[in-house]
Design goal:
Layout: E1 28-29, H1 41-55, H2 67-81, E2 90-93, H3 95-107, E3 113-118, H4 124-130, E4 134-139, H5 148-158, E5 162-166, H6 178-188, E6 203-207, E7 231-236, E8 249-253, H7 255-264, H8 272-282, H9 285-288, H10 292-308, E9 310-311, E10 314-315, E11 317-318, E12 325-329, H11 334-343, E13 346-347, E14 357-360, H12 364-384
Parallel strand pairs: 1-13, 3-4, 3-5, 5-6, 6-7
Antiparallel strand pairs: 2-8, 7-8, 9-10, 11-12, 12-14
Helix pairs in contact: 1-8, 2-8, 3-7, 5-6
Bound molecules: pyridoxal-5'-phosphate.
Subunit structure: Homodimer.
Cofactor: pyridoxal 5'-phosphate
Protein name: Histidinol-phosphate aminotransferase
């Protein structure tokens, strides 16, 4: 894509491409970590009813503070995590992507650094770029877990204004124990932030986009909120909640962090239609989450199946996942695996460390197709020696 020189694009963006997973019309799409099950008839009825109720008010701007939605999200969080967060300490936006961007707008910026643990979600560096924030990655261990001591040492050295911990992580699926998050949060309270008041400490953003898929016994970082005012926990309705098309993400944090986001948000950023659609889904949380347990089982079965498959005589490496996707490899040429599966109508994602690909959990039929086609592809690669 070449933008004509006559268009005065920012110099630092001149060589950039629009980023995003391919949106292709193929029979089996397992590339963007969606929930493959559509909303129930009850949810659809509720959406239609609520949209009809507010349709005649669309000449007016929506509730800028989206108070009803924040209350419904606080109620959901209490049910899901057991943690009581006041609605004033919850904030929503158009997907957790927008929440993340707002965090960078409020806490990043020129002269500031955001730190995270590689490999991780590929959009963070884009928000850093767009807000002129320096992006700093420190490596995870070989098993993709966070090296907490090394991370803390790096935080002390770099003095970032933001630390982002993704749990479960994308694209590896790796969770981090809440006691390890707490060690990082506590350490940050003794770190000052370059280019901020000397009493300021880094905020720790825990991105829990996939948290509902976690294995039993994994505690949510929401449990830290009452004790630390430098923690923010972000979630989304896009994944387990099966509502990616509605574009709703949200965050729970101290009042100070939420009020900072209120400064940078666009006026009326969350449309009245989005707000009622989200309320309709939150009215039916059990239905929206009804396939989560099944998808967890699909993940366990698929991981076990993948671990038995052979590539050039070796078993595949499969990253243990607490999410609705699995990272597996290592292939000499992962693009070939991606392309061959695509030719067979299965779209996965080329992402993460070299040689790995990621597959997201689909319906039973979709997973059967994935397994059948991957078996063919592995066989073809064995035959050709590629
Ligand atoms: C780790 C992580 N965070 C945030 C998001 C953004 O999700 P959304 O903007 O749909 O809420 C994603 C989407 O893939 C993700 O993987």
């Amino acid at each position: 894509m070449a933008i004509p020189a006559t268009v005065p694009l920012r110099n630092d963006l001149l060589d950039e491409e629009p980023y995003g997973a391919p949106q292709l019309d193929v029979p089996v799409c397992l590339n963007v970590n969606e929930n493959p099950y559509e909303p129930s008839a009850a949810v659809i009825d509720s959406i239609v009813k609520r949209v009809r109720q507010i349709a005649s008010t669309l000449n007016r701007y929506p509730d800028r503070e989206h108070e009803q939605l924040r209350a419904a999200l606080a109620e959901y969080l209490k049910k899901e995590t057991g943690v009581d967060v006041p609605p004033s300490q919850v904030w929503a936006a158009n997907g957790s992507n927008e929440i993340m961007l707002q965090l960078f707008q409020a806490f990043g910026g020129p002269g500031r650094t955001a730190l995270s643990f590689a490999p991780t979600y590929s959009m963070y560096p884009e928000y850093a770029r767009d807000t002129f924030t320096t992006w700093h990655m420190t490596s995870r261990k070989d098993d993709f877990t966070v090296d907490v001591d090394a991370g803390i040492a790096e935080i002390k050295r770099i003095q970032p204004s933001m630390v982002i911990i993704t749990s479960p992580n994308n694209p590896t699926g790796t969770p981090i124990d809440v006691s390890d998050i707490e060690r990082i949060v506590a350490a940050c309270q003794h770190v000052s932030v370059a280019d901020a008041d000397e009493s300021a400490h880094p905020i720790v953003v825990v991105d829990e986009a996939y948290a509902e898929f976690r294995r039993p016994g994994v505690t949510s970082a929401h449990t830290l909120l009452a004790r630390y005012d430098n923690v923010a926990v972000s979630r989304t309705l896009s994944k387990a909640f099966a509502y990616a098309g509605a574009r709703v993400g949200y965050i729970a944090a101290s009042q100070g962090i939420i009020d900072a986001l209120r400064i940078v948000r666009m006026p009326y950023h969350l449309s009245a239609l989005t707000q009622v659609a989200a309320l309709a889904a939150l009215e039916h949380t059990d239905e929206q989450l009804s396939q989560v347990e099944h998808l967890r089982r699909t993940r366990e079965d698929t991981a076990a199946w993948l671990a038995q498959q052979k590539y050039h005589g070796h078993e595949l490496a499969v990253a243990p996942s607490d999410s609705n996707f699995i990272l597996f490899g290592r292939f000499d040429n992962r693009h070939l695996v991606f392309e061959k599966l695509l030719q067979r109508g299965v779209l996965i994602r080329e992402v993460g460390p070299d040689g790995y690909v990621r597959v997201c959990m689909g319906t039973d039929d979709e997973m059967n197709t994935f397994k059948r086609e991957l078996t063919h592809v592995l066989h073809e690669l064995d035959e050709s020696g590629e």
